[in-house]
Amino acid sequence: MSVWSAFLRSLRPRQWSKNLLLFAGVIFARELGDVTHVVRAVLGALVFCLGSGVIYVFNDIADVELDRVHPTKRFRPIAAGQLPVYRAVRMGGGLLVFCLVAAALLGWPFLSGLVFFFLWNMLYTRWLKRVPIVDVTGIGMSFVIRATAGVLVLLPVSPDVRISPWLLLCTFFLSLFLGFCKRRDEYLKVGDGRGMTRPVLRGYTEPMLNALIGISFGLTMMMYGLYTVWPDTVEQFGTRNLTFTIPFVLAGMGRYLYLVYEEDRGGRPHEILLNDLVLQLVLVGWIATAIAIIGT
Question: Where are the domains of the chain?
Answer without folding.
Answer: 1-163
